Amino acid sequence: MILAFTSNFTLAATQSEYMEMRSFVRSTLAQNHVRGSVVVVKNGQPRQISYGYGWYGKKLGNGNEKVVYPVGSLQKIITGAMIVQLINEKNGTDQEFSQYTKISRWYPNLKNADEISVGNLLTHTSGIMATRTEINRGYVYSEDNAVNWLINHINASTMKPVGTYFYNNANFILLAGIIAKITGQSYEANLQTRIIDKLGLTHTYLYRNIPSSMTDAISYNWNGYHNYQNPAYVKASLASQILGAGNLFSTPMDYYHIMVGLTDGSILSADDFHYLTHIASTRTGYSGGMYLKNNDSLKTVYGNLGGTHFGNWVQLTTDNQNGLIMFLNQTTDSEAANKAVGYQILNHIKANTFIAN
């Protein structure tokens, strides 16, 4: 009887804590006029809490199992992880490479390729200054055509010295192309076998593979007076341009499982994750798709997509025990404001643990 009482009491307490957290998160989102789906992680327990509509016109709620969200730049860590997988797999073979390998091996016709290393791409220190990767060109590219367009664009653009930090989708689009060149299979095929199938993810797709029974979320503005204004979504043409750097759609819960898989051996080991996030050429703490902060106790990354109102922010303790994965589809188009909302929630999860940006 004592054991039964203890079990029931613990269950009731856990449910009570969840309801309190749910109420806090939803009220915080409401007070700040944002909408979206959030995974709150406290003491190793992830909980999804959603508020508002993922598609207002159809009254399809955020968190509905039919809705997936563009992850934006949060995809870069996944592309980086596949590069590390290949570094491990090709070690000791005639395809062996490392963070120091120059990318002229795969891109002999790319400007400065004989000076740019894989590590430079992983840390945005390639010197590549090519812009316009998120300006919709109105054409749905194949993977090869997306990479080829980018190479031509880089060759026609000004570059800074290799080693100069400049955040640029181009770096990870080139990495996606390297994955395809090394394996002889598309980035799409590698993503499916190396990430989605490995983790058993059920709500993670490249844009072109979102099932007809599901939908990608619509993004909106709060305009100071009304919700769900200025709807905008990611078009197929835009998604096809940013291969490996922003064409992935998922849910915050699936993304949490990816975060766990990056260190538990499912995707990478803890040592592999350390390698990915400590590339020698880093200048800002950004390495492989994320920033590590507070003496490596926190991992964080922000993502959005040009021409839309989405805002995604991840901040987790590096052991994945506490933190936040926040996918917003209504914002005021301010990264700082979105992070401020997330930081309120983070402090409610575990005070004096997280950082504001």
Automatic annotation (TrEMBL):
Q: Could you tell me which InterPro entries the record lists for this protein?
A: AmpC-like (IPR050491), Beta-lactam-related (IPR001466), Beta-lactam/transpept-like (IPR012338)
Where's the Beta-lactamase-related domain?
23-336
- Tell me which SUPFAM superfamilies the record gives: beta-lactamase/transpeptidase-like (SSF56601)
The signal sequence is: none
Q: Pfam families, from UniProt?
A: Beta-lactamase
This one is known as: Beta-lactamase
Q: Which organism is it from?
A: Lactobacillus gigeriorum DSM 23908 = CRBIP 24.85
- Identify the taxonomic lineage of the organism of origin: Bacteria, Bacillati, Bacillota, Bacilli, Lactobacillales
